[in-house]
Design goal:
Radius of gyration of chain A: 26 Å
Largest sheet of chain A: 7 strands, mixed
Structural class of chain A: alpha/beta
Strand order of the largest sheet of chain A: 3-4-2-1-5-6-7
Shape of chain A: elongated
Strand content of chain A: 15-25%
Helix content of chain A: 40-55%
Distance between the termini of chain A: 42 Å
Oligomer: homodimer
């Protein structure tokens, strides 16, 4: 089944447009695509006429062309007739927004079976039902929430596939926007009657050139399709992430009523995912941290060149003793370890810092340059650390509160990293007035995080990435190294 | 030793003011207190003259009065003479900003011993050395970072005591400001040569009427003072929180160079803290969540009246199935359990919702009102849940993306909670354009969180609070109930 018309349609028709209710799903989708997106849109309304000055067509077969995609936003009972029309008119793809199918049982289940039969018999790529569809910029956006209500993420390397529309627009879109992670295409699969997670994994791995990372929120695999998914993930050249909801008993009860799916035994699942080189973040926050790091590393302008190989040996450079301590505490939990500096190295670093800081600073690992630090101290010590081969990654903990840190600090650090290409993960509090510092780093494609934990998680993500690449390339365990 | 002059001084003198360097610690402290704080400030400079138009005195004994507090921001070698002057002039309190004492070993250690002797012999409440001192609004602020660089938290119920100045201004001040937690007084204890964590715990428990919650960031107890601290915590009517840095081997290495302290065996420590009714959050984020909740519950206007007793039975009300699932998954980990709704209750709730949502909504626990929800649905179902006795707390997961949710939703929910006084924890994404919704809830003293995890943690905090109150009141284990 070809999915490209679902994500890259030249033309699209929308049904279920209400003339009375400006908040009806079909109307929101119709208007936002007409006004904001690049696709050619046709509105269908039994009475014809116009809406917001745009002509409406009474029937699909009256359109000036056969559209690539049909968005169906009518009641469950009226849905199948449109699916049949797709078959009759050879419309290759459809998105069904409404609920009232397998998730409500009985009649809905029968309805969904009919839908599946038409789709598979006629090779129609149907997404849903019970979903919010596709966000594929700059072409289409079938999310039935008004654009001004949601927040859209920037364009980037991550394909997002979610079994929950709410999770897609909130846990992903909003957070991606907030912490600057880029999305290639986002898909809400709903009941996944036809198009399922495996088909999407295959499409984004093999067909979509903008995607380098594929992240799934699932509440279980489609029955009978788990094996397929795992094999595709292992073969994929992209990084594959899964985050599962409904893995506890309480959560399972919830999913039964939600999307009629149920995950298997959590431990077996987890072992299978790992074996197939799928990354399973421990929390939603960790997922976001991983994706942010991987999105940056997928940029054409690789900030760390070919050095993004990290086995876990880090140096911590801080200007607050407590931050260094908290960071060091977290290393072990994330499979990382601090390198030990020689007496000579410590003395040399000491000589690189200003006379006031020097006397109270500490040059163990974590290094604490103290609140008496100046820009040059950080710059010079970072250059020094960048040249120590056994340090694979530097965690930089910078608080711009210190009186002598200037607005130049972001650019200075960014330049050092770009010169030496040593992997560096940067922590700084997220405060609007320091936006300039953060921006200087982000423009240089340096990963910036706003909690110590996230910075440490990001390094563990680089380690994970190294492991998976090694396994994908020569199938040897990197731990043997 | 009386500490009140340290936190509530009427007058204060500052030494270590540089006329050449506007970023010297003493000068920053002098100017910010003179310009921004309520205390009467005197600046000391050997050459006299003036600074920013303010008269400087050449010596302490030339001041028009004996100040309550002296801030000493000179080099280590010059510090002791000022400490001796405090003794000679009967200045009852001092804050020593500079380092170069026990934390650098040898000579520094001897210097610190001399300092201690003078302080204890003369009953001078000395804070530090090697600290950023005290923030006690509206009176004093001895933080040597310029005020415009740091972010100050609002006024509230939490006393903050930190062994790291960086942690105080960043992990606490900045985050408190961001998520709206109020501080009564904040103290950086540095090397705690004289004033230590136990003395502060006693002071804030017994002497300070604005404080209801006391939070510590420590890297170990002062040697020989652990027992005292634990006993004071158990007796205290305030809630006591500790967050420890340096509990892993990596972290310990870091603290040795930082503040010359070392925590004992982490497991023994943890058991002792629990036994003495000290709350130990598992992460910095959990600490912040707990403090936010406790700060709100300490307000005079108690949002939940006398009902803030929670043993763990919750209802989840969501408008996104996935959010409900993720929330339900987390309950068990936090010692919470979902109540089960009867068939009758489910039918009654169904009747309270609009006809479109009703057909696709789910009334299990978690309840999913779907994206077709309207304000009234949430209002009515919340009222219904508020009247079910066996529900101790409602977790409300509201995404304002849904087309029919209005800007009124925050106020409507706030009013229901205020009427019924059922404990409710609210989740909503943190997006500027929805500030109005969040503000309506915060004005009603309803706890609002911006991740599902934090909302669940907050309920576990209420449960924890119930446990500790029960134990403090009648010393019976609440689990027996």
């Amino acid at each position: 089944m070809e999915l490209n018309k679902l994500f890259k349609p030249k033309s699209m028709a929308v049904t279920g447009i209400s003339k009375k209710n400006p908040l009806s799903a079909g109307r929101i989708i119709f208007v936002k695509n007409e006004f904001e997106m690049d696709v050619k849109v046709y509105g269908i309304h039994p009475a014809g006429g116009e809406l917001e000055g745009i002509k409406l067509y009474t029937k699909l077969n009256e359109l000036p062309e056969i559209p690539d995609l049909l968005v169906i936003a009518v009641k469950a009972e009226d849905t199948l007739q449109y699916v049949q029309e797709c078959a009759d008119l050879h419309i290759p793809a459809a998105i069904i927004i409404g609920g009232g199918f397998a998730e409500v049982g009985n009649e809905g289940l029968k309805r969904q079976e009919k839908l599946e039969k038409i789709a598979f018999d006629n090779d129609i790529a149907i997404l849903g039902p019970n979903c919010i569809g596709v966000y594929s910029p700059p072409l289409i956006d079938t999310i039935f929430m008004p654009t001004e209500r949601i927040t859209r993420p920037p364009k980037g390397s991550v394909a997002l596939i979610s079994q929950s529309g709410g999770v897609l627009v909130d846990q992903f879109f909003h957070k991606f926007n907030q912490i600057n992670i880029g999305v290639s295409t986002a898909v809400s699969i709903g009941n996944r009657a036809v198009v399922d997670e495996s088909m999407l994994l295959e499409y984004f791995s093999k067909k979509d050139e903008d995607t380098y990372n594929i992240a799934f929120y699932l509440e279980g695999f489609k029955p009978g399709k788990a094996r397929k998914f795992l094999e595709l993930a292992k073969e994929s050249e992209d990084m594959v992430f899964t985050y599962f909801g409904g893995i506890t008993e309480q959560g399972k009860t919830a999913t039964q009523s939600h999307t009629a799916s149920l995950s298997g035994n959590a431990r077996i699942l987890s072992a299978a995912l790992k074996q197939h080189l799928i990354i399973q973040p421990r929390s939603e926050n960790e997922l976001l941290t991983f994706l942010k790091l991987f999105d940056i590393l997928s940029h054409k302008k690789k900030p760390f060149g070919d050095k993004e190989v990290v086995y876990g040996r880090v140096a911590i450079l801080s200007i607050s003793g407590g931050h260094g301590v908290i960071c060091a505490d977290m290393l072990k939990k994330y499979g990382l370890s601090p390198v030990k500096f020689t007496e000579k190295e410590q003395q040399e670093m000491k000589q690189l810092t200003n006379p006031v800081a020097r006397e109270i600073a500490s040059f163990n690992n974590p290094i604490d340059l103290t609140g008496s630090v100046q820009d040059e101290d950080i710059e010079r010590v970072l250059e020094y650390l960048s040249q120590i081969e056994r340090i694979e990654c530097v965690i930089l903990l910078i608080l711009p509160y210190a009186p002598s840190i200037s607005f130049q600090i972001g650019r200075r650090i960014s330049n050092v990293i770009t010169n030496y290409k040593k992997p560096v993960v940067f922590f700084s509090p997220y405060i609007q007035k320091y936006g300039l510092i953060i921006e200087a780093l982000e423009l240089g494609n340096i990963p910036v995080f706003h909690s110590i934990k996230e910075a440490v998680q990001a390094v563990s993500a680089m380690k994970n990435r190294t492991r998976i690449f090694n396994l994908k390339i020569d199938n040897t365990f990197w731990e043997d190294r």
